[in-house]
Specification:
The chain is an alpha+beta fold. It has 8 helices and 14 strands. The protein has one domain. Strand 6 and strand 7 form a beta hairpin.
């Protein structure tokens, strides 16, 4: 459905309805005072009052350009339906500690999956990835053209100019992926993520701490607590890792925990140490900013930790020192 330029232009890459759960509960109820939450830079600086309506937006971050020059808003409207489903389940199930049905949990996992792939962080990362591939392919194309101009006929057997033949991605297709990674990747990525998440174990951590869980401009966090034992090139978290933990704050009171562990699928009260550990993790994962229902900060959220003794780096250093391996 193509729409005019001034329709749904500012789009939330973190849903407005989701962020409203972080409105400060101590704010006075008044028709002249809008509900507000607290926004911080990822390092804890620049604390300000903010409003969910205006936070974490970007013009046309997931608008699909229509062939006639208009703006296709099918993702905008699809997200609206998904956000409504999640908000209802948060109010009617999670807030009351009633476990969702399997069908309802599919909606929750869809919300979690899209929360990961609709953000600026996802867009910027994949723009860089596809852009780098496009640049290399263009360099290859220039080299081939130069060789052909000298009479050295070259054919790599792959489409350089652009192709829909199924033999690979061409330059024009890479340019589209580079320019519109969210629009072109969200469907396949979200479906793949949901199919894995639904086969993992899900629990809901709960707290009555006044601050509780914070959330960020990149709210779905993938974290492998054993990654420090791996070589740096293998530390990027993936859902296939047996130790992977997916965490997603539902509200200041609750946070989803999704793992491959034999976890009881229940609500349970998390010790304050766990709440603060997850806040530390989520803030470290933030792209630029995080939000809280209170203006207060804890120093533990920003602590820097040294590598554990059994880290890959330390193990390698010991093996080099003992002569077991050589340092290249």
């Amino acid at each position: 459905m193509a729409k005019k330029r001034n329709t749904h232009e500012a789009q939330h890459f973190v849903p407005q309805s989701y962020m409203k759960a972080w409105n400060d509960p101590s704010a006075p109820a008044s028709p002249t005072v809008s509900p507000f939450l607290w926004v911080f830079n990822a390092d804890g600086s620049n604390c300000q009052k903010g409003h969910a309506k205006s936070l974490f937006t970007e013009n046309d971050i997931y608008t699909v350009p229509a062939p006639d020059g208009g703006r296709d808003l099918y993702l905008e409207h699809g997200f609206s339906t998904l956000e409504d489903k999640f908000t209802r389940l948060r109010n009617l199930k999670f807030n009351k500690r009633i476990w969702p049905t399997e069908e309802e949990m599919v909606w929750v996992m869809m919300f979690v999956a899209t929360a990961r792939v609709r953000t600026q962080a996802f867009r910027d990362f994949h723009r860089k990835q596809w852009g780098g591939l496009r640049e290399r392919l263009e360099e290859m194309q220039s080299a081939v053209h130069a060789m052909n101009a000298r009479g050295e006929r070259v054919n790599f057997g792959t489409p350089l100019e652009g192709s829909t033949s199924g033999r690979g991605l061409g330059i024009e297709e890479l340019r589209q992926l580079e320019q519109f990674p969210v629009q072109m990747m969200i469907g396949s990525n979200a479906r793949a993520i949901v199919s894995i998440l639904m086969n993992m174990r899900i629990a809901v951590l709960c707290t009555d701490d006044p601050i509780g869980f914070v959330t960020t401009d990149d709210p779905c966090t993938w974290y492998n607590p054993q990654a420090y034992k791996l070589s740096p090139m293998y530390r990027s978290p993936g859902l296939g890792m047996k130790d992977i933990q997916v965490t997603f704050p539902i509200s200041p009171r609750q946070c989803l925990l999704i793992t491959h562990d034999n976890l009881a699928q229940v609500y349970f009260d998390a010790p304050i140490e766990v709440v603060n550990e997850l806040n530390h993790r989520h803030i470290a994962h933030a792209n630029e900013r995080f939000i809280s229902c209170k203006p207060d900060l804890l120093s533990t959220w920003f602590e820097k930790f040294s590598m554990p003794e059994d880290s890959w780096e330390n193990e390698r250093a010991r093996k080099i020192a003992s002569g077991e391996i050589k340092d290249f």
